[in-house]
């Protein structure tokens, strides 16, 4: 891509439209722009996670993911282009298998909680799911390559696993394990006879 942003406030969007990478203009509430925005928010959420203390291998992985998300957003902004390759999805599959292998099997649902870095990873997981839904919605009306949808699906799974890893890394001294959902606790609060 030879064109780089040299002017940020162009005022061309004052009419409620925005430009795509191919030069066409669409309304700012277009499904394509919603998907691009969700991917951008996800990338920004990973930036917040990267501001936390992290193990070096996870930091390196997240930086690579940020670059791939930029490619994904670029692909969405240029209808008909392919920027995100199948190899990127495969890398997430490999990372998912690697990090999940060291974790104990889940016997109960976990809450999106624990260390600050784990909680931020959980927020990223939910934004990835929203971005995935936006890409799927867009694909109902326009042709979208499979890799963006697959990538967002795997990334949400990976962020769930990384949240568990980050709780165990305990880099802020507030974690150490998953925070488990306790249905029995709810029963005690809902049943007055147990109080």
Automatic annotation (TrEMBL):
Sequence segments annotated as region (Disordered): 1-26
Enzyme Commission number: 2.5.1.-
Leader sequence segment: none
InterPro entries assigned: CblAdoTrfase-like (IPR016030), CblAdoTrfase-like_sf (IPR036451), PduO-typ (IPR029499)
Extent of Polar residues compositional bias: 1-10
Domain Cobalamin adenosyltransferase-like residue range list: 8-165
Alphabetized GO MF terms: corrinoid adenosyltransferase activity
Protein's recorded name: Cobalamin adenosyltransferase
Lineage of producing organism: Bacteria, Pseudomonadati, Pseudomonadota, Betaproteobacteria, Burkholderiales
EC category: transferase
